[in-house]
Each structure stands twice: as C-alpha cells, then as structure tokens.
Amino acid sequence: MIFAGEFEHRLDPQGRIAVPVRFRPAFSEGIVLSRAYDRCVLVSTAEEWARIAADIAARPTTRAAERRLARMTFAGAFPTEIDRQGRVLLPSSLRSYADLIDEVVIAGTGRFLEIWCKDAWSVERASIDAYGPKIAEDASISE
Question: Would you tell me the crossing angle of helices 64-75 and 46-57 to the nearest 10 degrees?
C-alpha cells in the first residue's frame, strides 16, 4: 500500500489516535511506532519495519554513527496493534519526542505514515511549499 494524504486528528486523553480507515488493512499483521529522523513519529507496517530493522542490524558496529543510528531506531520503537476501534496507543516517550499533545497531523510518505504535532507540521509544510522545486531538484526526481 502507498500511504498518501494529510489527515488532522486529535489524541484522546489516553494518548490514542485513530488510524485513517483506508490504511487500517495495511496494519493487519501489526504496526510499529518509532522515532522518525525528524521530530515526528514514524508508523510502519510489520513488513516494512522488518526491512528497516534488517538493514540497520546488518551495519557494522565498529563505527559510532552506526551504533547511534541503531540506538535511535531500536530503543525508540514500539511494536503494537490497532484496537477494535481502529486506534493505536502512542507511548508517552514518542508523544514527548514529537511534542504530541492534542492536535496532530498524520502524513503519508509513501512507504510510511508520520504523525506530527499540528504546529510542527505547519512549519514543515510551509518549508515544503516554499522549496518544493529545490527539494525535487536536489533529490534528482525524474519526470
């Protein structure tokens, strides 16, 4: 499944968030929440998480940068499941990391979903809008 779109949501008092209905089937085998490289929460399918984990686990541990990447990735990861109401509990450490308090945005990024603080997403979105052509050029996007 390709994850696309932006969805505004609110965390409930227990720290749960509803996964958009159209994406729920992708998480039938489980869902993994983790720290993203930006200050947001990365949402992965179990299958995609296994790919990420294998790639990072295969890196040499002789370099400090590789060890730090592994710590950042694995220490901040939480395998879980969606409940019957289509919600997932965001662990308090991830809510704190991404400053998720009330209003959030779920953004599709192709292979993943990201959960952003609404204000932080507004800043990120403005930057994307302002620098879109440069971002595409730097990423060597072919038309």
Answer: 160
Burial class (CB in 10 A: 0-12, 13-18, 19+), 125: middle
For residue 40, report the phi and psi dihedrals to the nearest 5 degrees: -150, 175
pLDDT, tens digit, 9 for 90 and up, residues 106-143: 999 999 999 999 999 999 999 888 877 777 777 765 55
Q: Note whether residue 131 is domain-resident.
A: no
Confidence (pTM): 0.90
Q: Report if residue 128 sits inside a domain.
A: no
Burial of 103 (C-beta count, 10 Å sphere; 0-12/13-18/19+): middle
Rounded CA-CA distance 140/143 in Å is 10
In a domain, 57, yes or no: yes
Look at residue 107 and tell me if it is in a domain. yes
